[in-house]
Amino acid sequence: MNARRAARGLSLHAVVWLIAAFVAVPLIYAVISGFKSTGELTTNPFGLPERWKAGNYTGILGDGMFWRQIANSAGIAIGTAFCTVAASAMAAFVLARYAFRGRELFYTLFTIGLMFPFAVAVLPLFLMLRTFGLLDNPLGVILPQAAFGLPMTIVILRGFFRTIPAEIEEAAVMDGCGKFRFFWRILLPMARPALGTVSVLAVVASWNNFFLPLLVFNDPTWQTIPVGVQQFQGQYSTDYALVLAYIVLAMVPALAFYAVAERQLIGGLTAGATKG
Amino acid sequence: MPSAETTLTKERTDRAVPPHPPAPVRSRPRAWGDWASVAWFLVPALVLFLVFVLAPIVVAVYTGFFKWGGIGPLDDFVGFANYTKLFGDPVFLGDLGRGLYLIVLSITVQLPFALFTAVLLNQRLRGRAVYRMLFFAPYILSEVVTAVLFTMIFLPGTGMADHLVGLVGLEGLQGKWLADPSTVMPTLFVVMIWKYFGFHMMLFLAGLQSIPSEILEAAAIDGAGAWQRFRHVTLPLLGPTIRISVFLSIIGSIQLFDLVWVMTAGGPNHSSETMAIAMFQFGFKRYQVGYASAISVVLFMISLVFSLFYQRYVLRRDLSGAVTAGGGR
Which residues in chain B are closer than 8 Å to A267, comparing Cβ atoms? Predict the structure, then answer.
């Protein structure tokens, strides 16, 4: 009996290990290859480098362009998260807690947005942004991203706002607290965990967005990390080791953010999916 | 999320009634005053949504009726000509077919794989938190980074994949992968699994954890074996999660762009082209903006009809309380 259980445990581990290898090997391959020269990468694809040369990595880190792209991505992500969460929180507040004519209509309107793939809107968005003069302007990326983030954020926040007991609001109103003060001074501080979750989701979505920044930014000074990665690959297409080093460095901020905000991310994504 | 309700249900208006005591008189003016203060809160989201989500659809529908290069006046009205051209184009019909191919593979391969992994990691297993975190990690990476990484891995001659198949004696695959029309779609699909299965695994894990262990214990006491417990208890109880996962896979496959654009740009010779890639090619490379708009509209209609149909007929029974425990906290 015990031997059977041990064997079962062993095979269980073997299967999990196999899946782990499938996921991890490409990543490890990229990290190690970044320490090789392209010549060595061709002749010795799997082994450790004969001499670890950090030149690929330090070269990229010494390049202002890389940092510029990181800063652009970060700025746009923060701007997007702020706009999405601010607009959604206000809308979700009244949609959750007040009866007014057309409330369900508005809510349904926003939830319809959950079904719109971003790819559908990209071409007309580009035409509109060109008309508004928002090309090569970070707002040209921030505002559409915020708009597409609204449906999910409103759904999550409305659900949360509804769980805050009406008695709290009644007490606040008795003490002469208006709608806006209640929202700002009482509801928002109480909703901090939910706000954290939706902010994290907005930051990640913005950080990884490629389609829109690709179209909006012609000027390299505004390019974000995903666009930069693609450009870099085009530019150094034959220097494989250097390209791999670049994507490894481009992964670091996202993975670091994941390590810090894992709980919000996973909780938010599963909640968003099951509720949307 | 602590909320214990599905958000699409319409009950519980009682909660949302203004909490202050009802004002006895002047009911109509007060209602309007209420409306005004409510409107202030709705306006920012509403404006953003109308301008950047709904208006583009209208613009796409409108420009889809013109032959237009993207600059200058819209004056060459062609009616439905763009659409008839589109559905007479074998490449575009191929795009639809490839979308379907990815959908079918996602549901028949990726989903069972994700479910299998979730079941594995739902057992007592040393280090399972680490595995869970690792398997989800690719989902956090941007599509572009993933795409460039696998472009390097599948590079003919130098890439890791060529060396790997060389080791196990499958030299026939060498030099193909993304470069050959017969292998490009399966290769793309492998990358999709790598990138997305962790997300579906997380959904399933959340679903599995919401199944009360008493039910499984009861089944075990009644003599159900491990497979029977899975087949007749776990699987039916995971129904809502599975239906959501299918929905997200389909919507994701329909609009796939980033991965494909960076890895193959739809090539070789359209053999990996998706609808979104075709739209991008016509709109931004060949300057047939009217035609590209028509592709956007078709993409939109497919998503809309599918979503409405799916929500109406498949998700309906889930929306009245079955998935409620979701949230993964």
Answer: 1, 327-329
